[in-house]
Design a protein that fits this description.
The chain is of the alpha/beta class and 619 residues long. It is 65% helix and 9% strand. The protein has helices at residues 3-23, 27-41, 43-79, 84-134, 143-157, 160-188, 191-198, 202-220, 222-234, 238-247, 250-302, 308-349, 409-417, 439-443, 460-464, 475-484, 490-493, 512-526, 542-556, 591-597, 600-618, and strands at 368-376, 386-394, 398-402, 424-429, 432-433, 446-449, 530-534, 560-564, 576-581, 584-589.
Length: 619
């Protein structure tokens, strides 16, 4: 992968990058927010780190003065005009200062590493997790939000926010130290500070350009990093690895992963090579500046413009000025790239939902759910996934949503639950718009089995009672839920009630059908007034399916139930059927009414019935 390919990636992402930068916070607001964060969350570590850098920045000036004093005493002693006591006293002063300096430096290092970096990373990650768990679910469908999240994670992982705090600490505290050092050097000769500053000013330009390009690279490669990490995750999932090996496409995915990895690595390597070239050039200029300073000091010494002691101190001070000013310019140059990622982080964590506690709860039972002329499209999609959908579900009704895959059934249920919000139309609970209700009060009344249900590496009883772990000790209730889904006896096979589910931590692994039945047991245990089942028997064999559906229909008596399925055999036993096609509800009624209408439902039923009849005749 060449640098030309990397530059192409940057150009292709430039428009997206500019849009995202437009959403970001201003640099000065980012910097102020970071300083406020550190002095609020970890004041002791922040104060001690600042104090240490104040001492650090005056260190060079103090050493310069002490060195001049020591060199003068040493020269006088060698010339016979000084005494040993003064020389040893000066040496003891320098040694004592160095000991005190290194003690303070060690303490500040602990504060910086443990407080400014490690604790800050912990707190920033905590805010990041809280944000991810709090943003609306529809934003997980938005590629731009996912890219922003990735950059926010990279910001924390690479210590960019802590880095900005330390850069600002260095900049603010170094100004007085640099000025004192320049004044001290200027007192020896006014040309010396000018030469020292001129020899390191290139670090500012180099770091400014490199960090700006680094941020552009980071932004452009975010999508590539996400693809690389996703493909890698496939190789660590047992189900994916099994299919990959049997079907023989492991090599193809490995090549795809390598391709994404190479683009990311080449981008980083190219930037690292450019940094090495720039810094090599900067160091060469700085070395030339130092040699110029040495020649100038020798010239001044030969002309008796400075003494021998001052000559030695000038050589020490010149290096100190170069280092201090070079670090100062380099810190300024690194700020833009650091601030760019920090702005991405703060912009992302600010995308938190309005606190539900500000909205009223649904006080009474759910008597009626009304969907009125609802439209919805996913982020950046041109097509409506649900369009002009209307449906009324009354308390105690069992309603089946049917239709071909991709017709919008699951999306409509997400709108009914408030997981997504309609772009037009409204969803009403007892006549109240869902957007004006605390959605948690709806969830507390709802038991959901989604298509993408999950079992967790917890005990069997915890997996069943997850909706209310305060009742996890009600073994009879858990056993009853397992029995209803034909999973009685499973507790003994998993090692008792505390047996872990799944092989990850040495527990029992279940088949797809067994997993679905355990997930159904969780719904039965929940015992809620609103039950939503999304393809609840997709992994079950026909005999189990019939038995479990009969159990659910018995349970659903008197409860509001929504069952999503592309199988229409169940529909003979429900109160109402809503047929969806291309995002809209095309038919609604009972099984008999829709069969008599000879519309889309009748066609689906006849086709599926014919399949079962033909199969039975062949047998």
């Amino acid at each position: 992968m060449t640098s030309k390919n990397v530059e192409t990636v940057i150009r292709e992402n430039e428009q997206s990058r500019l849009v995202l930068q437009g959403e970001s916070l201003e640099p000065k607001k980012v910097i102020w927010r970071i300083i406020k964060f550190f002095y609020t969350k970890m004041p002791a570590a922040s104060f001690l780190s600042t104090l240490a850098y104040v001492l650090e920045n005056f260190h060079a000036t103090i050493i310069t003065v002490l060195s001049a004093y020591f060199f003068e005493e040493a020269y006088g002693y060698l010339a016979g005009s000084g005494n040993a006591q003064s020389l040893w006293g000066c040496a003891a002063l320098i040694i004592g200062y160095y000991l005190a300096y290194h003690i303070v430096y060690s303490l500040s290092s602990i504060c910086i590493n443990a407080g400014v970096y490690e604790k800050a990373q912990y707190l920033l990650n905590e805010d990041l997790v809280e944000t991810v768990s709090g943003i609306s679910l529809v934003e997980f469908e938005d590629g731009e939000v996912l890219r922003r999240r990735k950059r926010a994670e990279e910001c924390v992982k690479n210590d960019r926010i802590s880095g900005i705090f330390m850069l600002m600490t260095v900049l603010i505290t170094s100004i007085a130290g640099i000025l004192s050092l320049l004044v001290t050097l200027g007192l020896y000769h006014p040309v010396l500070p000018a030469v020292a500053v001129a020899s390191v000013v290139q670090f500012f330009l180099a770091d400014w350009l490199l960090e700006k390009e680094g941020y552009q690279m980071e932004t452009a490669l975010t999508q590539k990093r996400r693809k690389r990490d996703y493909i890698w995750s496939l190789f660590t999932d047992l189900a994916n690895v099994r299919e990959m090996r049997v079907m023989g496409f492991t090599g193809h995915l490995a090549e795809r992963w390598k391709a994404e990895r190479d683009v990311v690595n080449e981008g980083q390597w190219e930037l690292d090579r450019k940094k090495a070239r720039y810094h090599l050039l900067c160091d060469a200029i700085m070395t030339c500046g130092y040699l110029t300073g040495v020649v100038l000091c020798i010239f001044l010494l030969r002309r008796n413009a400075i003494s021998v002691g001052v000559f030695g101190a000038c050589l020490v001070a010149f290096v100190s000025v170069q280092k201090a000013v070079g670090n100062f310019f380099g810190s300024i140059g690194r700020i833009p790239g650091f601030v760019g990622l920090a702005a991405d982080y703060f912009t992302f964590i600010d995308k938190r939902c309005v606190q539900e506690s500000k909205l009223p709860d649904l006080q009474e039972s759910i008597e009626v759910i009304e969907v009125k002329n609802v439209d919805f499209r996913y982020p950046h999609s041109q097509k409506l996934s649900v369009r002009n959908a209307s449906l009324t579900i009354r308390q105690g009704e069992v309603v089946s949503l049917v239709g071909v895959n991709g017709s919008g059934k699951t999306t409509l249920v997400k709108l009914i639950l408030g997981l997504y919000h309609p772009s037009q139309g409204e969803v009403l609970y007892n006549g109240i718009d869902l957007k004006n209700l605390n959605e948690s009060s709806i969830y507390q009344r709802t038991a959901l089995l989604s298509q993408d249900f999950a079992l967790y590496p917890l005990s069997l009883d915890e997996n069943i009672a997850l909706n209310d772990l305060s009742h996890v000790d009600k073994k009879d209730r858990i056993q009853d839920a397992l029995k209803r889904t034909h999973m009685d006896g499973v507790r003994e096979r998993t090692g008792g009630a505390d047996g872990i589910v799944g092989k990850e931590f040495g527990g029992m692994e279940f088949s797809g059908g067994q997993k679905q039945r355990l997930a159904l047991s969780r719904v039965l245990f929940a015992d809620r007034e609103l039950i939503i089942l999304d393809e609840p028997t997709s992994a079950l064999d026909p005999l189990q399916e019939n038995a479990i559906l009969e159990e659910f229909l018995r349970l659903a008596a008197g409860r509001t139930t929504i069952i999503i399925s592309h199988r229409v055999g169940l529909c003979r036993y429900v109160d109402k059927i809503a047929v969806m096609n291309d995002g809209t509800i095309t038919e609604c009624g009972t099984h008999e009414e829709l069969m008599a209408a000879k519309g889309e439902y009748a066609l689906l039923y006849d086709v599926q019935s014919k399949w079962y009849l033909d199969s039975a005749e062949e047998v």
